[in-house]
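#struct-queue
[09:14] JT: dropping the first one here, sequence first, then the structure tokens:
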Amino acid sequence: MNRTEGKIIRAVGGIYYTETKDGVLACRARGIFRNRSLSPSAGDNVTVVCEDNAEPVIDEIAERKNFLIRPPLANLDMVLLVVSSCEPAPNAFVIDKLIAIFESKGIETALIFTKNDKLAGDDIAGVYERAGYRCFMTGLDTGAEDIRSYAAGKITALIGNSGVGKSSLMNRIFPELNSETAEISRKLGRGRHTTREVCMYPLEGGYIADTPGFSTVDIERYGRIPKAELDGCFREFQPFLGKCRFSDCAHLKESGCAVTEALAAGKIPLSRYESYSRMYAESAELEKKY
């Protein structure tokens, strides 16, 4: 019996393709994981047991530093959030909600604005650059090399709404790939799903995981943030936290709130604050139910 360490780079139909020093192994998982309500996922660091004339089996899953439920991905250093400057138009609330969820999990976020050859996305990108997020502007033939360089050596996920041009971008980052692309459905205002499962591709000491495009209703599955922790997930709020009159300030209508004073002074973008307020209301409503 031989035990070897590896990383799951793709999971399809109960088969876990695991990169090891001996190459990529197609593995099954021990039934014990089901008893623990634990399922191996792409990004997991695992121990594989190989026996003569037997299928390799995942025997252990190392402790995860973070985990996304949808798409199922473990141990991320960074998310590259892909946003179209047009077709479909960017949705600030969806962007802000995803960024907040990634912040809550300790995952760095960078934003990629696509289709700048059709409509420049500088205005919305500026909102996030001022908050300290790295933004990339891409067109049909631009931006891929900068993204490759920035993602090198990191475990990264490429995540975006359906139709934003994620598959086309992957083809430019990895020219050897032959991912199918889809035209935008103008009637629905979104694209067809072109990636159907998570697949991780090696990149200069790290990996980029391509993920299925999501619709707006899917974002609830990425994670939820308790309302008391939400303000810590908005970087623009950081200089003002702890400076409010009340220690339990929700930064909504309270007097002496340093955050709303910063908003009035133009130090916090209105769109970001509106997203915070909406997320706070949603979280408060959920906490009432549960």
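[09:21] JT: and here's the second one, same format:
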Amino acid sequence: MVKQANIDREAGYRLLGELAGPETIEATLSRLDAIAPGFPDWIVTALFGGTYQREGLALRDRQIANLAALTALGGVEPQLDDHVRNSLRIGIEPREIIEVMVHLAPYIGVPKALAGLRVASAVLEEGDRA
């Protein structure tokens, strides 16, 4: 018997609000919904209400995995920027975010690690000015 996936739309929106802040998600989701109606709800429901709800990894671990994956992909700086902010919001230290990028260099290449460092550094500099 195949186990059914646990998909919880309300939990997804709660978690995204915790990670990104309610004002950020409303603006982001409404802009995306204007372009691709229903797509933001699918993302939040499937990802934050599904994948993130699985047992086995703490939210902190999931965020570190996100930082690594997005940095390795390259070309997704807006999403990496969001996840750096989300990581800070849940208590990951700036030095830890930087160390994730440094640690990736031998695995994904120095240029991609440097690109990740640029994104992280820009977000962290904003926090220093705030």
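[09:30] RK: nice, looked through the second one.
[09:31] RK: Residues 7 and 51 are 8 Å apart (CA to CA).
[09:31] JT: good to know. Helices lie at 9-20, 22-35, 39-48, 59-73, 77-89, 94-108, 110-129.
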